Amino acid sequence: xxxxxxxxxxxxxxxxxxxxxxxxxxxxxxxxxxxxxxxxxxxxxxxxxxxxxxxxxxxxxxxxxxxxxxxxxxxxxxxxxxxxxxxxxxxxxxxxxxxxxxxxxxxxxxxxxxxxxxxxxxxxxxxxxxxxxxxxxxxxxxxxxxxxxxxxxxxxxxxxxxxxxxxxxxxxxxxxxxxxxxxxxxxxxxxxxxxxxxxxxxxxxxxxxxxxxxxxxxxxxxxxxxxxxxxxxxxxxxxxxxxxxxxxxxxxxxxxxxxxxxxxxxxxxxxxxxxxxxxxxxxxxxxxxxxxxxxxxxxxxxxxxxxxxxxxxxxxxxxxxxxxxxxxxxxxxxxxxxxxxxxxxxxxxxxxxxxxx
Length: 357
Ligand code: PEP
Ligand code: MN
Fold this sequence. Notes:
Layout: E1 21-25, H1 32-44, E2 49-51, H2 69-82, E3 85-89, H3 93-101, E4 106-109, H4 111-114, H5 117-126, E5 134-137, H6 144-156, E6 162-166, H7 184-192, E7 198-200, H8 202-206, H9 212-221, E8 226-230, H10 248-257, H11 270-304, H12 312-328, H13 333-355
Parallel strand pairs: 1-2, 1-8, 2-3, 3-4, 4-5, 5-6, 6-7, 7-8
């Protein structure tokens, strides 16, 4: 059910029907020179919306926490001198107040804040009566309801110019990505709210420069509305997220080569879906291996206690329980039972192997 009241983002000078809507700029506003230099180079390449973090959420204290209100002055200069619009992250009511006062055009809420309903409600309260586009990043954890809850809170304050930013999710088995994309989550968000613009953040998903181009292309192929990318005039010496920032020139090169097909429905590409299947099959194999190891331990126990390998009571209990569970998950109960008969057969074989040793 459409429980969000949405209107277009209505960003001055931006045609929202033209994909991608691009927001670019450094992870953090570090110095006036870095901000101005990056902004000028991006503006030269035709970028219309400049991003920079003014307040930075850091995992541990003592790191660079952003330049705060000093940096807002630089954002004003960017606006005046390049006529780009400006966007920054807000996490607390005082950030909202200072940003509005400095004429920031677009606000975004970071992943750590979205995950905190208290903080979201405070932000929402501070936005009552304000008319500004707000983009909400997904929470760090893969919880679509928490993401929707944050959107609802901001919407409840009267903000209808809403958008979502997909920046990937924390996950224990991160190998390729800094934040696992779990594309099915933004796709489900789109299914529930077809009018909510979704912007992909390849920088925070990838965490590495080389992944920006393929992620941008993937986002376009899947029908995302826009891209928010980190770009820095001197990426290697960036004070935060150095590995994932690209030169404005490089960003231009990437955007130039993007193939944007119109009328793409927001769905996952076949190759992304196959990758998900491969990942799941790997997990299934890991689980089966673990299960067989535990079975062998049980085999050792049975041997030491001179017990029979097959305990029929236990066997039918497993089959019945899993059959019912399978049916509740939308699978055929007989199919699930067949799987467990096969797993049980292999378990028995492994236990016999131990007993006969
Ligand atoms: C950022 O955009 O620089 C940022 C801090 O992002 P996230 O909230 O996605 O970690
Ligand atoms: Mn960053």
